[in-house]
Design a protein that fits this description.
heterodimer; A: 328 residues; 2 strands; B: Rossmann fold; 17 helices; cell membrane (chain A); ABC_transp_permease (chain A); transmembrane (chain A); transmembrane helix (chain A); ABC transporter permease (chain A)
């Protein structure tokens, strides 16, 4: 009896305001769903099995970046450097993928991923130990990684890659390898975030850093780790995209960071940190992938596509602040 | 009273190991200002010890030294007979010292069980969390202290009191042998405080040594074994609670006898209604309210924490969405427009001083004149600072704020003075018509309280209508002309001046449903 005033407040009854908030929260999803339905009804190539397969393959690289972004944003940070890392990792991978042979290919893949991880770790060190704001640290490293990629490639596409390396973006017994990588990465990320101590600590760090520290959770370790993970996944994406482009190109990932952040935010990962799940991110990058594909099919110019995507990002953040943010 | 040791009566006969905290001649100063002088005191295991003293008396500095956050300049500290040489927080934690700060630190987006067990996870095969086990563990820990909260509920769905209890559980579940609580009850209503006391008694019976700061006299008598009274950085008396009287404690704290904490209520007859509220329904609540406040009247709002008082006040001021009609001096005001409310003469001193009442990083001058900058803007859009200073000095004098300079940051003032600044800013351009006060004395010491009460009473005597929400019963009863009791966003009763009694307010605050469920 003593506890009744302490007990959880009963859920207030369904009010107009609640319905409004619900509608707003899913406004973007609803609008996009309508767009897709119209597309599916009017265009006969859109809803074919082969096109859906194309979408999945196109989505795979962004899925990796968006998964990295999810880790980072959950701690309350942001990573703007992943687009440049894609370019750098692709160039590094390509430089070592000139010769035939399994050993050379493995070396190329590992070094490409390592390059991404190194930039990610540098981001993490700056944010976690030097206390540089994430926006500044990763914006700086976006330029640094891009510069490194140009230096390493001398500004030229690195082509002449081995067949084995190129097959990374292909199929194995009819199954697309990038899609398999995507599924594995997302599954591992889900387990890490939802089912392990590491994941719980990431939510705690983003949800209330002070409380996390008081509870004995290391802010530094966790912040460092998420940027390193984001860099590593960008490295994987870079290698895959280099294989798909049949060359390592420094500018291969330009602008990809925004697609990744957009996917996470559309999926409900709050930019304030500590809220959202990887499942949401999956919906986020699927929506973006389908939208890209759909706009292409109906011949919308890529220039207009940029405008649409930019507005969608703003819309997603707006919805996040209206639905979740308290009015201060 | 379990054998309490006062500073003066500290005997050499104490058995070794019974002393949890032994301070000898601890001193500390910041920038030449002495904040602790020559503190010598012993606190035993299995006792609850209240540190009483006005804000700035040195209580929190002493807490910081014991919890390893601050190194003393001189003197020694022994914990469980071992001298402390390293002053760092994690070392103190490993010795079993746990501190519960006044500011809560929940993680609102995580579940209750996650909040409770973060940092103490149970990990099984492959590094996976044992969720089920952790949820059960959280339920067990809460049940042990009589809390009935669903461990899987989101933390943000809990009210302040429940959040506080979770925080206390979290801090004490780490094998804490010394627990420092900085005003744990300041945001709890009296019923919730009882619950807190149950937790404290359990900890005491388990052999913990508890140091507790409080400004509430009734609590000191109810919960403590000893009282250590601090003034100007020194412990001037430490004795078993049973040997002290309330007036002694208060007199020691302030260094003078406070004869009257509350001023005599001024009764002004014949004033017309200033504020009229009709069918005001705050978003998220089902009930609506209608009432009015007359000129010179102090209308108290009672109720439990979470009853919706603050929300109602915010709605009247315009910072929270609501429907209904609010009239000031007969003219309706548009809801949701705080700037307009200010122009019409509504002044608001919100509940959460640090978050909404003052801007701690700005100077006193800026804080006091912020709502009136339009009036101080001269030709070319520049601020007339000379004018601002004159008006600020005037109003700070009237509200008796103790400060060093107008450029001092408000964050450096004591809680009581911060609250006076929050109030002073509304007196810069003459009298407000309606003054809204939400928990105006939370976390404020007795001396400053008494001055605030006088100030509020004086304003009412000059014709200001006052809306006062408070969880402090004596304050509500002694200051108000009339009290409305709020529950679930609606009014459950009205008590006139002669019916004002603690039990009557509480009964209404808890509502019939609670009575029926007993």
């Amino acid at each position: 009896m003593q506890a009744d005033s302490l007990a959880v407040r009963a859920a207030p009854s369904l009010s107009a305001a609640k319905v409004g908030r619900f509608a707003l929260r899913y406004a973007l999803v609803i609008i996009l769903a309508v767009f897709l339905l119209v597309l599916a009804a009017t265009n006969h190539t859109f809803l074919t099995l082969s096109n859906l397969n194309v979408i999945l393959i196109q989505v795979a690289a962004n899925a990796l970046l968006a998964t990295g972004a999810t880790f980072v944003i959950l701690t309350g940070g942001i990573d703007l450097s992943v687009g440049s890392i894609v370019g750098l990792s692709g160039v590094v991978g390509a430089l070592f993928a000139q010769n035939d042979g399994v050993g050379s290919c493995v070396e190329a893949v590992l070094l490409g991923i390592l390059a991404g991880t190194a930039i990610g770790a540098f981001n993490g060190a700056l944010v976690a130990f030097a206390r540089v704001p994430p926006f500044v640290a990763t914006l700086g490293n976006m330029t640094v990684a891009s510069g490194l990629a140009f230096v390493a490639s001398d500004g030229q596409p690195i082509s002449g890659l081995s067949d084995l390396f190129l097959s990374i973006s292909g199929e194995f017994h009819g199954i697309s390898i990038p899609v398999v990588v995507m599924v594995v990465v997302v599954a591992v990320a889900w387990v890490l975030l939802a089912r392990t101590r590491f994941g719980m600590h990431i939510y705690a760090v983003g949800g209330n850093p002070h409380a996390a520290r008081v509870a004995g959770v290391s802010l530094r370790t966790n912040r460092f780790a998420v940027y390193a993970i984001s860099g590593m996944l960008a490295g994987v994406a870079g290698v895959i995209l280099a294989a798909r482009a049949t060359a390592g190109i420094a500018t291969n990932g330009t602008g990809y960071e925004l697609n990744a952040i957009a996917a996470a935010v559309i999926g409900g990962i709050s930019l304030a940190g500590g809220r959202g799940s990887i499942i949401g991110t999956v919906f986020g990058f699927l929506i973006i992938g389908v939208l890209d594909n759909g706009l292409n099919i109906i011949n919308v110019s890529p220039f207009y596509q940029l405008i649409v995507k930019g507005l969608i990002i703003i819309g997603a953040v707006f919805v996040d602040s209206v639905v979740n943010g308290s009015d201060d | 009273m379990s054998g309490a040791v006062g500073a003066e009566i500290a005997g050499a006969a104490m058995p070794a190991g019974a002393i949890a905290i032994d301070c000898a001649a601890l001193s500390k100063s910041y920038d030449g200002v002495i904040v602790l002088r020559d503190i010598s005191a012993r606190f035993e295991r299995g006792t609850v010890n209240v540190l009483a003293g006005e804000n700035g008396a040195g209580k929190s500095t002493l807490f910081k030294i014991i919890s390893g956050q601050v190194r003393p300049d001189n003197g020694t500290l022994e914990l469980f007979g071992e001298p402390v040489r390293r002053f760092d927080a994690s070392h103190a934690q490993s010795l079993g010292v746990s501190i519960i700060p006044q500011e809560l630190a929940p993680i609102p987006d995580m579940r209750v069980w996650q909040n409770l067990l973060v940092g103490r996870e149970k990990v099984g095969a492959l590094g996976l969390l044992r969720r089920r086990e952790m949820i059960d563990e959280a339920a067990r820990e809460m049940e042990a202290v009589g809390l009935s909260i669903d461990p899987t509920a989101p933390m943000r769905s809990l009210n302040v009191a429940a959040t506080q209890m979770i925080e206390i559980l979290k801090a004490t579940s780490r094998q804490a042998r010394i627990i420092l609580m900085d005003e744990p009850s300041s945001s709890l209503s009296s019923r919730e405080t009882e619950q807190l006391f149950r937790v404290i008694r359990r900890l005491r019976n388990d052999g913990a040594c508890i140091l507790y700061t409080s400004h509430r006299m009734e609590e000191i008598e109810e919960i403590s074994d000893t009282v250590a009274i601090m003034r100007d950085g020194a412990i001037i008396r430490h004795a078993p609670t049973s040997t002290l009287t309330e007036s002694q404690i208060v007199a020691d704290m302030v260094g003078r006898e406070i004869t009257e904490l509350f001023p005599d209520r001024t009764i002004r007859g014949g004033g017309g209604p200033v504020l009229e509220v009709e069918n005001l329904r705050v978003a998220g609540y089902d009930s609506s309210v209608s009432f009015s406040v007359r000129e010179g009247e102090i209308l108290g709002l009672g109720g439990l924490v979470g009853a919706g008082r603050s929300e109602m006040l915010e709605a009247i001021f315009g910072t929270r969405p609501a429907t209904g009609t609010v009239r000031l001096d007969g003219e309706p005001i548009v809801l949701g427009r705080p700037a307009q409310s200010i122009r019409r003469g509504i002044a608001m001193v919100p509940e959460d001083r640090k978050q909404a009442g003052v801007l701690t990083s700005l100077s006193i001058l800026d804080n006091v004149t912020l709502p009136h900058l339009d009036g101080f803007t001269g030709a070319g859009g520049l601020l007339d600072t000379a004018q601002r200073r004159t008006r600020a000095l005037d109003v700070l004098g009237r509200t008796r704020v103790a400060y060093a300079s107008l450029n001092q940051k408000v964050g450096h003032l004591s809680g009581g003075n911060q609250q006076k600044v929050a109030l002073a800013r509304w007196l810069v351009t003459g009298m407000p018509r309606l003054l809204i006060l939400d928990e105006p004395t939370r976390g404020i010491d007795v001396g400053a309280r008494s001055e605030l009460y006088r100030l509020i009473n004086d304003l009412a005597a000059q014709g200001v209508a006052v809306l006062l929400a408070s969880s402090d019963m004596p304050e509500l009863i002694n200051l108000s002309h009339r009290v409305l009791v709020i529950r679930g966003g609606g009014i459950t009763g009205e008590l006139g001046r002669h019916e004002l009694q603690q039990e009557a307010i509480l009964r209404l605050a808890m509502g019939r449903t609670t009575d029926a469920s007993r």
